Amino acid sequence: MLWILKYFFEIVRTGIFLLVTGCRGPSGFGSASTAEEVTEGIDASGLTVIVTGGASGLGLETARVLALRGAHVIIAARNLRAAEDAKNSILEQCRTANVDVLKLDLCSIQSVRSFVESFKALDLPLNILINNAGVMFCPFQLSEDGIEAQFATNHIGHFLLTELLLDKMKYTARVTGIEGRIVNLSSLAHAHTYKNGIEFDKINDQRSYEDKKAYGQSKLANILHANELSRRLKEEGANITANSVHPGLIMTDLMRHSVTLMKILKGITYFLWKNVPQGAATSCYVALHPSLKGVSGKYFSDCNVVEPCAFARDVKLGKQLWDFSNKMIKAVPSI
Fold first, then answer.
1. What are the Cα distances from residue 220, in Å, to 151, 225, 227, 237, 275?
2. pTM higher than 0.70 for the full model?
3. Of these residues, 7, 194, 209, 285, which one is catalytic?
4. Which residue has the higher pLDDT, 171 or 269?
5. Which family is it part of (predicted)?
6. Is 209 a catalytic residue?
7. What are the residues whose beta carbons fall under 8 Å from the beta carbon of 234, sequence distance 6 or more?
């Protein structure tokens, strides 16, 4: 149960008082704020947003609220039936919503490439990319590309997706003058990882695999990816920001591999948990709020900037992960 203690320590380190009390931080929002509240009064009409994993949980709430604010939302999901149901549920609440659905399996490099081709065929701009989808605490398994499933889905799939969509985002930002935004969903679990942060030589090693540390490793990768991407975008002078967020502790389908354990944990630490509208708040805030214009390479929790663990602040590790990710993708044969 060491991982639970590490999670609790990370919560304490990043501000347990604000989390428990719901007190607002410097942004004017806090742990009790909802996605609708943090986007109230913001007009997102004319913006196109991709939300991965938008068929359920935090992704669905994020897609719903952004559509409510007028954005054209693309729900990227592996299960098209669930995605269509999600789209219909949004339309039932907001008949003027503009929502489309495209298939995306982040565990498959070919599926990522196919999704990007399908999106580009729509000839739409792209203002915001929310890398929301993920898997959590799953038993050891390799993707069809031979990559450990949590690392493949949570990091490699989003890394490639972002890379393939970046030119479209740069073009959109350039011709419209509107800042593009990339949001990576990470977790406070990024602090509970392997001893070297990212075990590059053991990503696919079943013998050393620990489901919770592997999850933490993938969530650490999300932050390092956003930070290194932010550094590169700034260096290039692109009008795009890249940030990472911790949504909070929320009981969603993401926890299907450890439902009993999570219910017990929630019973003990009930005061630390959020509902889905609260959990989607930070993603929506970072994606849309005008006060964050130009803010990049930051890690947010409860709609406020907080400091991630030391591994997540390691620039050298971020550069190493970037090169490793590209090498891993290039090793997969193209169809």
1. 10, 9, 11, 26, 24
2. yes
3. 209
4. 171
5. Belongs to the short-chain dehydrogenases/reductases (SDR) family.
6. yes
7. 296, 297
